[in-house]
UniProtKB/TrEMBL annotation:
Residues 119-364 form the Capsule synthesis protein CapA domain. Residues 48-121 are annotated as: Disordered. The chain crosses the membrane at residues 7-30. This is CapA family protein. Belongs to the CapA family. The keyword Membrane applies. Keywords: Membrane, Transmembrane, Transmembrane helix. Residues 86-101 have a biased composition (Polar residues). Residues 62-80 have a biased composition (Low complexity). It comes from Candidatus Faeciplasma pullistercoris. SUPFAM superfamilies: Metallo-dependent phosphatases (SSF56300).
Length: 466
């Protein structure tokens, strides 16, 4: 009996051992499956659901205790929303990176592609005052801008010449009808239109006095619109506004040559406009020195120049001298304003000078003189100017109209022809879509009235059109 009981006990012990071994083996198998499930879930975690904190050891993340899996359970992959996709893209671009604990970052600094470009849209003289403001109050804050919002908003940087103060204070310091003051709430339309920067180096920023000038700085700041060409002192007025796009540093600065009272010019302890005078003038030379300095701080330097004769298409001698001096001292692109008309574009030492980009949203005298205008859509790369397209516009009914070459063909082609007549002498032409192309200058025909006919053996056609 005793032997039988001993044998039964041994058998029982062996059975228990077998059960324990089987249980442990199954447990290890389940643990492996859990590890696979947790690893898959971790790899597909939505980046917007996890707080990326560099102080947290992201290598020790564990699955929630409530998570369970089975042989038939597959890890679920959630398709991110649009905003989540953007967050992932930002991480990929290197703007925000979090490394697992113990891992050394081994990512190269993000570099722009070698063919990186930026689009800059330029608009001319702009002032939403008097009748323009009344129309905006009546028809909506975007009314003056409505037809050009898409163009300005799609650009990387959009800039206009703000030829007005922005204030509700002050009395006009100009003769009747020539003082411009834009109500501050009109800046909402600028923002909605996609305007990023404004040039203040002009002869109307001080139209309603010193306090209105200070208001202009303050209100632009409130609406997040950058400015250049005027400031609280001479350093700010001569300052450089820089924006980086696709790795390209683009700088903006501005100067005014049109006469203003002495107290309108910025000084060491006085707010005002960045004034320049004759090329040899001490103040002008100081600004040209700044331009040389700024050339080394950005890839593309764009200088606004308020200068020229009003209501004419011709370039005067000082416009040419000042703009070329700006190029000689480091500017890559010179943009002119003040004539209120379109004027020629010239390439000087391989760099473009836009002598006048005309009006944008501005009171004008003659529909066919200063009511015909353009948006100038410039593409730049790290080497400077790359290409240009113009969008013909027409100012009427206190707004600017974007002209269609089919529906508004007469005015559309009137502007294209105007640009060609202005720019052809400088070797520039525009096609029917507004794209700038090269214009081959033709030699002047010789006066052969008193000369004997020349004899040549050159085949017909190789001499061009003469």
């Amino acid at each position: 009996m005793i032997e039988i009981r001993q044998r039964i006990a041994v058998i029982a012990v062996c059975a228990v051992a077998i059960v324990i071994a089987l249980t442990v083996g199954m447990g290890m198998g389940i643990g492996k499956e859990l590890n696979i499930g947790m690893e898959s879930d971790f790899e597909t975690v939505d980046s917007t659901d996890a707080t990326l904190d560099p102080s947290v050891d992201t290598g020790s993340v564990t699955a929630p205790s409530s998570q369970t899996t089975s042989d038939t359970t597959q890890p679920q992959v959630t398709t991110p929303e649009a905003s989540e996709t953007e967050a992932v893209t930002q991480l990929t671009a290197g703007e925000t990176t979090t490394q697992p604990s113990g891992a050394e970052p081994d990512l190269p600094d993000p570099q722009p592609p070698t063919d990186a470009t930026a689009r800059i849209c330029l608009g001319g003289d702009t002032s939403i005052d008097t009748e323009f403001a009344d129309a905006a109050y009546k028809w909506g804050i975007n009314y003056p801008w409505k037809e050009v919002i898409e163009i300005f908003s799609s650009a990387d940087i959009s800039v206009v010449n703000l030829e007005t103060c922005v204030s509700n204070r002050g009395e006009s310091e100009k003769r009747e009808g020539y003082g411009f003051r834009t109500p501050p709430d009109m800046l909402e339309g600028f923002v909605n239109a996609g305007i990023d920067l404004v040039n203040l180096a002009n002869n109307h920023t001080r139209d309603f006095g010193y306090d209105a000038l200070l208001d202009t700085f303050a209100h632009l700041g409130e609406y997040g619109i950058g400015y250049f060409g005027a400031g609280n002192d001479i350093t700010e007025a001569q300052g450089l506004a820089i924006k980086e796009v696709n790795g390209i540093k683009i700088g903006f600065t501005g100067c005014n040559y049109v006469w203003l009272a002495d107290d309108c010019a910025a000084d060491v302890d006085h707010a005002g406009v960045n004034m320049v005078y004759g090329i040899s003038d001490e103040r002008t030379q100081a600004y040209l020195a700044k331009v040389r300095e700024y050339d080394s701080q950005c890839d593309v330097l764009i200088t606004f120049m308020h200068c020229g004769t009003e209501e004419v298409f011709d370039v005067n001698s000082y416009q040419e001298r000042l703009s070329r001096a700006l190029i000689d001292n480091g500017a890559d692109i010179v943009v002119g304003a003040h004539p209120h008309t379109l004027q020629p574009i010239e390439f000087y030492n391989g760099k473009p000078i836009f002598y006048s980009i005309g009006n944008l949203i501005f009171w004008h005298i003659d529909d066919d003189l200063d009511g015909l205008t353009c948006i100038f859509d410039i593409t730049v790369d790290k080497n400077g100017f790359s290409s240009l397209k113009v969008y013909p516009l027409f100012i009427k009914n206190y707004k600017v109209y974007l002209l269609d070459k089919e529906e508004d063909s007469q005015r559309y082609y009137q502007i294209i022809e105007l640009m060609n007549s202005l720019c052809n002498p400088y070797g520039i032409a525009f096609d029917d879509d507004g794209n700038m192309t090269e214009y081959v200058l033709q030699p002047e025909p010789e006066d052969t009235a008193m000369a004997e006919p020349a004899v040549t053996t050159v085949p017909q056609g190789e001499l061009g059109q003469g």
